[in-house]
Amino acid sequence: MSTPRISLAQLNSFSREKFVEHLGSIYEHSPWIADGTWDKRPFLSVEDLRAKLDETLRAADPEMRLALIKAHPDLAGRLARAGQLTNESTREQQSAGLDRLSPEEAAEFDRLNQAYLDRFDFPFVICARLNDRQTILQAFRRRLTNDREQEIEIALAEIHQIAGLRLAQIVHD
Question: Which of 41, 70, 98, 153 has a 20 to 30 A CA-CA distance from 76?
Answer without folding.
Answer: 153
